[in-house]
Amino acid sequence: MERNQNGSMYLKTLGLDPENQEAPIAFVESEKRMDGLFYRRNHFPYPEVDSDLLDIGGLTERNLRLTVAELKELPARTVTVVLKCAGNKRSLFSKKTFGEQWGKGALSLGTWTGVPLRSLLEKAGLKDGVQEIVFNGHDEGMQPGFDKTECYGRSLPLEKAIHPDTIVAYAYNGERIPECHGAPLRLIVPGWYAMASVKWLRTIQASADHFEGPFQTDDYVYYPHEDSDEDAEPVRQLRVNSTIQQPLDMAKAEKGEQIVKGIAWTGIGHIEKVEVSVDSGCTWEAAELEDGETEGVDYGWVPWSFKWHAEKAGIYKIFSRAKDSEGRVQPGEACWNRKGYGYNAIDRVKLKVLK
């Protein structure tokens, strides 16, 4: 449980050095504010950031050095986004993988405000031949397998970098970004797993080459084979997914009306349908989407609910599956990969209805 004795919600700690904590997703309501309950994913200890400068350069007509105050003077864009660790639900793979054993709470929802990255790149002036935009954060350190200290770095293909909703954010839910979530500046890449949304952003570099940093070419790659790198693919867009928030797994209830509720999200398009089964997937019925038509939701999650009547005592296996506007549906089994990324199998809980 993610509630203390006073009934207050708290983060579930998976690691302290560096700090990695899950959100109490079963108890989070559908509102966009998750202040204090936003999950935490770190590769290194928190950096001590003593500068609010952002350097932009590389294959550009001019180098830029901008302060947060200067960024705030530029036209802003606000996006509401699900940020989700690529390892969310890793612990649910039947064949276990190494890494933080995240449950269902390595995701959160928030509203971010900042400057479209496209505007900054136009201001710098991209030269011919730019293929990727590289981002580096202030956080750095050593990890197993590293032969030197590395800062956290990622790149985006130019097409994604210049998307109007890819922003350099300076505010979260209308206030300064908390230090633990990337202040003073954080890249926000809607629709992609959150490893792309580089925290404590310090440099942006235009490049004609493919970025080869360890968090790009080793981590955050789908390796479908245990002993081979064959068929490897980069982790990018969020897979369509849903989570049952209530009832809790292994909960008990009296006979009568039951309410199943949860959230669903996707990386492209929008959530079109959520279905629920209370008989181990033999039959399915449509859940009610809280926001009705979801076409305007874009990068947020969609709350859903389903009412049913439990006439008999027994153990019920309750499933949920989401479908998005691109025709993607949650599969019965997740695609195993040796780093445990992208789990999106049909969600499952058990409910015991008493006599």
TrEMBL record:
Q: Print the keywords alphabetically.
A: Metal-binding, Molybdenum, Oxidoreductase
- Tell me the cofactors it needs: Mo-molybdopterin
SUPFAM superfamilies with a match to the protein in the record:
E set domains (SSF81296), Oxidoreductase molybdopterin-binding domain (SSF56524)
Provide the Moybdenum cofactor oxidoreductase dimerisation domain boundaries: 235-352
Q: Which residues form the Oxidoreductase molybdopterin-binding domain?
A: 44-213
Lipid biosynthesis among keywords: no
Q: Does the keyword Oxidoreductase apply?
A: yes
The molecule here is called: Sulfite oxidase
What is the scientific name of the source organism?
Aciduricibacillus chroicocephali
